[in-house]
């Protein structure tokens, strides 16, 4: 985190980065330790405020797929909702615990408790609790989840949706998406330095390859272009660079 | 639950009712089964909407006392906050699981994720997620917790505070507080049928006897008198009566 006290950074840790997506409810310990070490070493030495959001990986997505639940198709079965929500809470507990072990004042924020969608699928995510925790020096840690969705029961809320919502409502100064790839790649698999409009990259962005109820790179880039803040997409090695304000991966800035 | 589809009942299960207050993190299995059986048998046969709120008992209060945290004195120690919050989540998990086992579509709502206090201690608890779950046929289950509190870190949010906040913001038609006593008792330990103003009972209300960071009967009655809905204070045997609209314990109604 860089700059003034009021700077707010939103860091998303991709579910594919911190879990083994091929094995149900399995943390990728080495990757998680690496990215959390980077978070801890920067967040303790800088003045800015940090929100962490993580995806589902092999915790949330497997259960969501099992129950046929997506961001638009829901379930009214409380047990199915609990299977997805409970798995995400277990992953969140690991992330929060390991941040606390590193001296970061992390506390959990569970979207099912605070967010909902209306009948048009429009998300409402009041940020007062998250903001209150930030103001008190805590690092709120949110996660992909299920949330109430009018006429659908509960549907999936992706980590990426949380990032864009919070970046907007809290006025983030920078947004970072830590992905399994080192940035948005061109046709030669080289990292594209900057994306200023979707036309810049439309020819090279394919769909996400693994099972992912929350969309691939094309959707991420489109959402980040609509943010009111500069965003970076980068790999696990670049978390520290991003948090200290260095160039990391691909800058996506549609402002 | 009685009457029309739009009727909303808020039921608070006292922490002293569902836990053994003398033994850390111990559920009172017999009492919990009894009250949840009553909830299940009425909530499945009626059309109204139900919110359950439970207190901390030997889960939350012990940790809150250990760390010197109350509704007005906070902590900025993430580990202390997690000790209290984690204990309350464990109790909440038990309540939610056992309701689901009985066929009630219970889902957890954790106040730390949604509520905060300002520097004057005024509570903000946006009810959109809880309302969304209700509209989709779920039974939200909230609990006493710690929440962000401006200039204090996190402080305790009592179950009673949640009840009054939600009853107001959701427009509850009836509120019930299941306590260890069968109602507000007079000087001969007989249940007072109705309380219409605090003066009615000022002479007989003492302080709560056990360690309770969230206040005793006097505070409960005062808060319930300020509600815009009739409230009942009753013992574990009367949960079913309350939910089916029968007279239960003491009616507190200051309207």
Question: How would you describe the overall organization of this protein?
Answer:
With 255 residues, chain A is of the alpha/beta class. Chain A has one domain: Acetylglutamate kinase-like (Carbamate kinase, 3-Layer(aba) Sandwich). In chain A, 34% of the residues lie in helices and 19% in strands. Chain A has eight helices and twelve strands. The first copy, chain A, has helices at residues 15-18, 29-43, 57-66, 78-101, 128-135, 159-170, 217-225, 239-243, and strands at 8-13, 49-54, 106-108, 116-117, 123-124, 139-143, 145-149, 153-157, 174-178, 194-195, 231-234, 250-252. Chain A has an eight-stranded mixed β-sheet, with helices on both faces. In chain A, helix 3 (57-66) packs antiparallel against helix 4 (78-101). The longest helix of chain A is centred in the middle third of the chain and has 24 residues, at 78-101. The radius of gyration of chain A is 17 Å and the shape is globular. Chain A starts with 7 loop residues before the first strand and ends with a strand. Residues 1-5 and 207-214 of chain A have low confidence and may be disordered. The A-B interface holds A 76-79, 81-82, 85, 96, 100, 104-117, 124, 126, 128-129, 131-133, 135-138, 147-154 and B 76-79, 81-82, 85, 96, 100, 104-117, 124, 126, 128-129, 131-133, 135-138, 147-154.
List descriptors:
255 residues, alpha/beta, Carbamate kinase, eight-stranded mixed sheet, four-stranded mixed sheet, 8 helices, 12 strands, Asp/Glu/Uridylate_kinase (chains A, B), Isopentenyl phosphate kinase (chains A, B), EC 2.7.4.26 (chains A, B), transferase (chains A, B), nucleotide-binding (chains A, B)
